[in-house]
Design goal:
single chain, mainly beta, Porin, 14-stranded antiparallel barrel, 3 helices, 51% strand, globular
Length: 348
């Protein structure tokens, strides 16, 4: 398909109207939606790209990217919920429009050590709309998932002998299996437009759990519901040394929905290896608000965040939610500078 200037201007006009529509929808939904989710997710969703949207594979400036995330939650209430992830992706494989990525996620929750291990392979394709500043990327992510639970760590009323708890007593329960493996599939699309230096916008839509695999440990029909995610963000220069990065995400899974909105201020240091510092504030509906602090050092981007719980659970949590860390490193191949020489004319 050939895109001319008229097509691009029409596309941008439609996109602008769509953006305003989603902003209006966001304000209407904010007062009615409750926060919940079944899948692994991070407060710093923008720093976990392959988990957010398979279409984001290869969506960075550079050649090769490594992303590490760690999250600890509810340590003030119960056994902490811990989530770890490590992902890597590369763009323009063999100078083609194709991108690839590999991601590993591990989550452990609660007293029963309920664990989820997911290994996903991301395959993407980038289409330029005019030039390299305007792109649409699509991606798919087949994944293998292993879930397990440790029943021995749980306590039951049958193990109370009338005076104290006795772990040697039978719990009287008839459990099914303590693990399950299944195949899953995710897909997504992402649009990115670099309007000018320090001025860009991007938006994406992803569908997770397309195959709706069975997740129960018992002989019942309990599929993992599909999850739909819409996200949008931008970079806006507001001062010679200051940019703002507003972001918004809407996630829907079965009867549960989650909204996160907020933004980050970026300050350009222009100080050798120390490039930029970040400070941000976000709100997750009916659940938490969280602060973020970050730094760009050489090719590293590091950011920490902390959730302040403001839901009805705050009575037990004392407003303490979760700590999260994200580290991104981007490799860039060395490209030698080609010097062109001109022959000096001979003056006779």
């Amino acid at each position: 398909m050939i895109f001319n200037k008229k097509h691009i201007l029409l596309f941008l006009k439609i996109t602008q109207r769509t953006f305003y529509f989603f902003l209006l929808t966001f304000y209407l939904l904010l007062s009615t939606l409750n926060c919940a989710a079944q899948d692994i997710h991070f407060s710093q969703f923008f720093n976990s790209p392959l988990n957010l949207n398979p279409g984001l594979a290869g969506n960075f400036i550079g050649d090769f990217r490594i992303v590490a995330n760690q999250r600890t939650q509810w340590s003030s209430v119960t056994t902490p919920y811990s989530t770890y992830s490590l992902a890597a992706d590369a763009k323009h494989i063999y100078k083609t429009p194709f991108n690839v990525g590999l991601s590993v996620y591990h989550d452990k929750a609660g007293d029963s050590d309920f664990s989820t291990l997911q290994v996903g392979l991301s395959l993407g394709y980038t289409q330029y709309l005019g030039d390299s500043s305007h792109t649409i990327s699509v991606g798919i992510q087949p994944a293998f998932v292993q879930r397990s639970i440790n029943y021995n760590e749980l306590q039951f009323d049958n193990q109370y002998n009338g005076s104290f708890y006795n772990s040697s007593l039978s719990n009287g329960e008839n459990f099914g299996t303590n693990g399950r493996n299944y195949f899953n599939l995710h897909s997504g699309i992402n649009w990115n437009y670099n309007i000018a230096q320090r001025k860009s916008v991007n938006a994406g839509f992803a569908v997770h759990n397309i195959t709706q695999p069975q997740q129960t440990f018992f002989n019942e029909n309990i599929p993992l519901k599909q999850r739909y995610t819409f996200h949008i963000g931008s970079l806006i220069k507001v001062h010679n040394k200051v940019d703002v990065l507003p972001r918004f995400i809407l996630t829907s899974q079965h009867k549960y929905k989650e909204i996160i909105f907020g933004g980050t201020a970026k300050y350009h240091l222009n100080n050798g290896d120390y490039k930029n510092i970040y400070a941000g504030l976000y709100y997750r509906n009916s659940d938490a608000t969280y602060l973020t602090l970050g730094l760009d050092y050489r090719n590293f981007h590091a950011k920490v965040s902390y959730d302040i719980n403001i839901s009805t659970l705050e009575v037990a949590s004392n407003n303490r939610g979760g700590f999260e860390l994200a580290i991104i490193y981007i490799f860039e191949r060395y490209r030698p500078v080609i010097k062109r020489y001109k022959a000096c004319p001979n003056f006779l």
